[in-house]
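As practice, study what follows.
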Amino acid sequence: MMVDNNMIVSGGVSAAGAVSYQTVTGASAVLSTNTVDLQNARDIGEGQQVFARMSVGTAFAGLTALTAEIIVADDAALTTNVTVIGSTGAIPVASLTAGARFAVAALPRISQTGRRYLGMRYTPSGTGTAGTVFADYGIEVADASAGAKATASGFAVL
């Protein structure tokens, strides 16, 4: 599974391959730190299923569950004409341990929503005191039980 820096919406990856995570705490919805501009010329899996792929960095605490939603909106801040096109449903806090991974499928026809920006929204149930997440979009989902394989990072595909 490859990670494209242009498709990361929560957290990031440095040139050296270090992963950073987005903090998700509190009792209200948190929007992803980045968005994907769907008007940029790029192939994000046309004709294929697109997934939001999420991993937990720091275990969640202080809440009962977390819901992660794939959203599209008219603005990069993800606040105008928001449409949900995929959801994990409520993930119990017992499943939100460090290293846990989740994937959710996006509505197959993203462009038909008429929205320009793609991102994520995280809604905690209860008041979270700790928890971080990394999320990106792709057409592959790694199966952690089959053993994760790594490719060297820090190279450019031209």
